[in-house]
Design a protein that fits this description.
With 255 residues, this protein is of the alpha+beta class. The protein has nine helices and eight strands. The chain folds into two domains: 63 residues, Arc Repressor Mutant, subunit A; 169 residues, GAF domain (Beta-Lactamase), CATH 3.30.450. Strands 5-4-3-8-7-6 form a six-stranded antiparallel sheet, with helices on both faces. α1 crosses α2 and α5 packs antiparallel against α9.
């Protein structure tokens, strides 16, 4: 269903078009973008023309896709850039120790947003991607942050209908609350086929001066899901990054 966009500013409508490219970034046809944005085709066509002119969207034979200009701007977001630069050495250490896919993510609303990712040697398709988002309650990163989040926020999350990505996703608030208490004791969060069948991950929280700001994780196929082996490496990396972030002065510029 489309709407005429009455009452919406040009900026708001332009953002609706850009947001319609999620999660893959394109390529997409005009009709698909109009349907996703919920705006008339004529409006979307007019907006796309302007967005192409400024470099936010590019056009190819296959359709429209997000432009490099957005990538350049996204790479300059201060919070994520500073966290990414501080985290990369510890992510690289964790990758060397495990040879598995390594992620760092932050909280945005009730989702995890992935700030950086290092791919493992073995080909293992995962739904996570840099700039992508997944539910807090299904991911190891999300659970690791939730376990140490403010109580009011945790209560708000548990009060929402918990989203199911697979048949293994935890959708019972009571069960999730018990899991969060266990994470507070162990310092490690797990998910086993909750995000996708055939994969699992474990994560540890990252703190800055006592406040949880992110989490580091390792994602593996279920055949290589060995928490006893992987957990110490994940906790060590998260602890090292927490110490780095909590220093009175720290370098967050390019390495």
């Amino acid at each position: 269903m489309t709407r005429d966009g009455a009452g919406l500013s040009m900026v708001e409508k332009s953002w609706m078009v850009l947001d319609a490219f999620a999660p893959g970034g394109g390529p997409m046809r005009l009709t698909e973008l109009a349907d996703r944005a919920g705006l008339p085709r004529s409006t979307v066509h007019r907006l796309l023309t302007r967005l192409v002119e400024v470099g936010s969207v590019e056009r190819s034979a296959d359709g429209f896709h997000l432009g490099r200009k957005l990538f350049e701007l996204g790479a300059m977001v201060p919070v994520e850039r500073g966290l990414r630069n501080a985290a990369l050495p510890f992510m690289e250490d964790l990758y060397i120790a495990t040879h598995e896919a390594v992620h760092i993510g932050v909280t945005d609303g009730y989702d995890v947003v992935y700030v950086e990712k290092i791919y493992g040697h073995a080909v293992f398709s995962m739904p996570s991607r840099v700039g992508g988002r997944l539910p807090l309650t299904c991911t190891a990163i999300g659970k690791a942050m939730l376990a140490f989040a403010e109580p009011d926020f945790v209560e708000a999350v548990l009060a929402q209908p918990l989203r199911r990505l697979t048949r293994h996703s935890v959708v019972d608030p009571g069960r999730l609350a018990d899991t969060l208490q266990e994470i507070q004791i162990s310092g490690v969060a797990y998910e086993y086929e909750e995000v996708q069948t055939g994969g699992g991950s474990l994560a540890a929280p990252v703190f800055e001066r006592g406040r949880v700001v992110a989490a580091l994780s390792v994602a593996v196929p279920v055949a290589r899901f060995h928490p006893v082996r992987l957990a110490p490496a994940v906790k060590t990396a998260a602890l090292g990054l927490s110490r780095q972030l909590s220093r009175p002065t720290r370098e967050t510029g390019p390495r």
